[in-house]
């Protein structure tokens, strides 16, 4: 048994360790910048060559180098690591550029990222290919997705909204011009609405028409009514709105044809240019269509509903196939999106190239979102814990994927942004009949500190 003196002597260091552990957990950014960052820079600089060697990332030296080493020193000629740049510290970690040695590819470095993270004592190492032959190692000091803080330099541009934080501490930007249509999947309470909320408020300040189809009686999208150009809250209303959107798309195709001297008989599928080629004064406003709980559009009770469903699905598929050139983009949300939804479901899903997969009910749900674009991400998406709502795996058709999490945004703040930007609703004549009635802002009773007294008191 240790004597009293030993315990007293140990007290100081133990308290220091306890304090450091507490600081690391409670204030990760401050802890990282004051303690973790200098340690990691020293570790990286001191052990770069040996770590690269241990990870199998060194190559044989050139003949000239070998000759020079032999001529000038008595050292044995050792394999050389890829050349590195100067480490650049950031508030969440540090970055260092690496010029790949001949014969190496970014995947070789990415395969060693787990080993590198342990060697340098950081939370994660991400490898990003910057240009042929150059990769950037992004060392992240702590779990940035635990408490999301968007990077300060993340700015919205037209149709490009920084909507979530990526695990490499950069912004996940929803860019409609590069990925026109997206599918957002997740079980109930997984954070889909939060994702839509961030996206919608990001777009609210832009000259973009926002359209909502929310067949859960509008519970998700109604609070944003002041900024919406159109809102359908029942399948019947959606069945009226979708053909109007398709007609608007066809009119825009006619406009492009007229402007560019393309024969009016040319099929829409063969026109390669888009609304962005039109002069600014003639260019129609982009339209982003949010579909919340897409399964509600597919589910039918009677034979008559079946016809209506088929029509709506065909219209959605047409919008997804041809909408991009006409400046019409889809953001489709749901819990599951598989063949069991019925005719056209998988065809529509194939057109939605952007994928964001929140926690699902089972592995099959994750497969529906990511199986056809990034199969190796399915396992990661299936292990998202229920205690971290908003955490998701984002992939795109290029095969890349990354974990992301939206920042918390309260419904009241999002609704307030929509009220403040209500005058920015652009004029899209065809959507005018579907413009929702904006509910009046909640009136808060004035707070009085005086206690009411009975009249006869
Ligand atoms: N990024 C986040 N950070 C913190 N809390 C979050 C985040 N995303 C979601 N939440 C919280 O998790 C809960 C569920 O989120 P949300 O309503 O977005 O889920 P959902 O997938 O839309 O659920 P449903 O399908 O039932 O509407 C909410 O209380 C929300 O505040």
Structural features:
single chain; 457 residues; alpha/beta; Threonyl-tRNA Synthetase, Chain A, domain 2; Rossmann fold; five-stranded antiparallel β-sheet; 13 helices; 15 strands; 37% helix; 17% strand; disordered N terminus; binds adenosine-5'-triphosphate; nucleotide-binding; FtsK/SpoIIIE domain-containing protein; FtsK/SpoIIIE/SftA; ATP-binding; P-loop_NTPase
Specify the overall morphology.
Answer: elongated
> Radius of gyration over alpha carbons?
28 Å
Give the spatial strand order of the biggest sheet.
Answer: 7-6-15-14-13-8-12-11-9-10
- Continuous helix count: 13
* Mean model confidence by pLDDT: 85
Give the domain tally.
Answer: 2
At the fold tier of CATH, the topology name of the largest domain is Rossmann fold
Beta content comes to 15-25%
The fourth-level CATH homologous superfamily of the largest domain is: P-loop containing nucleotide triphosphate hydrolases
The secondary-structure class comes to: alpha/beta
Distance between the termini: 74 Å
Helix content: 25-40%
Runs in which pLDDT lies below 50 for 5 or more consecutive residues are 1-15
Q: What ligand species are in this complex? A: adenosine-5'-triphosphate
Shape-level CATH architecture of the largest domain = 3-Layer(aba) Sandwich
Biggest sheet record? 10 strands, mixed
The count of β-strands is: 15
What is the CATH first-level class name of the largest domain?
Answer: Alpha Beta
Order of helices and strands: HHHEEEHHEEEEEHEEHEHHEHEHHEEH
Protein name: FtsK/SpoIIIE domain-containing protein
Pfam families: FtsK_SpoIIIE (PF01580)
Domain FtsK: 166-367
Organism: Streptomyces decoyicus
């Amino acid at each position: 048994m240790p004597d009293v003196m030993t315990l007293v002597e140990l007290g100081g260091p133990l308290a220091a360790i306890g304090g450091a552990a507490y600081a690391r957990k409670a204030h990760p950014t401050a802890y990282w910048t004051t303690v973790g960052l200098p340690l990691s820079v020293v570790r990286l600089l001191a052990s770069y060559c040996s770590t690269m060697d241990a990870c199998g990332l060194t190559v044989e030296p050139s003949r000239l180098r070998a000759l020079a080493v032999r001529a000038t020193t008595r050292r044995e000629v050792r394999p050389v690591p890829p050349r590195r740049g100067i480490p650049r510290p950031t508030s969440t970690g540090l970055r260092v550029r690496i010029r790949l040695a001949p014969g190496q590819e970014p995947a070789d470095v990415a395969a060693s990222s787990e080993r590198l993270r342990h060697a340098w004592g950081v939370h994660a190492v991400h490898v990003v290919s910057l240009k042929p032959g150059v990769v950037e190692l992004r060392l992240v000091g702590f779990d940035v997705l635990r408490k999301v803080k968007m990077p300060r330099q993340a700015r919205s541009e037209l149709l490009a909204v920084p909507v979530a934080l990526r695990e490499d501490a950069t912004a996940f930007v929803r860019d409609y011009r590069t990925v026109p249509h997206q599918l957002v999947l997740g079980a109930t309470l997984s954070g889909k609405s939060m994702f839509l909320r961030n996206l919608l408020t990001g777009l609210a300040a832009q000259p973009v028409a926002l359209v909502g189809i929310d067949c859960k009686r509008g519970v998700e999208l109604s609070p944003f009514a002041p900024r919406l150009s159109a809102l359908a809250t029942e399948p019947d209303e959606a069945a009226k709105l979708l053909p109007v959107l398709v007609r608007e798309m066809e009119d825009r195709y006619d406009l492009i044809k007229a402007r560019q001297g393309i024969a009016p008989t040319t099929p829409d599928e063969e026109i390669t240019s888009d609304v962005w080629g039109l002069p600014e004064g003639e260019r129609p406003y982009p339209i982003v269509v949010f579909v919340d709980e897409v399964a509600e559009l597919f589910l039918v009770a009677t034979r008559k509903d079946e016809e209506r469903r088929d029509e709506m699905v065909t219209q959605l598929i047409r919008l997804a196939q041809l909408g991009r050139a006409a400046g019409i983009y889809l953001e489709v949300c749901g819990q599951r999106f598989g063949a069991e939804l019925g005719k056209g479901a998988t065809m529509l899903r194939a057109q939605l190239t952007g994928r964001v997969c929140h926690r699902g009910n089972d592995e099959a749900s994750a497969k529906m979102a990511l199986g056809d674009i990034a199969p190796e991400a399915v396992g990661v998406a299936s292990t998202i814990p229920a205690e971290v709502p908003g955490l998701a795996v984002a992939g795109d058709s290029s095969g890349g994927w990354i974990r992301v999490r939206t920042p918390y945004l309260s419904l009241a703040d999002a609704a307030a942004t929509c009220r403040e930007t209500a005058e920015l609703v652009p004029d899209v004549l065809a959507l005018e009949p579907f413009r929702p009635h904006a509910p009046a802002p909640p009136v808060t009773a004035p707070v009085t500190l005086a206690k009411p007294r009975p009249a006869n008191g």
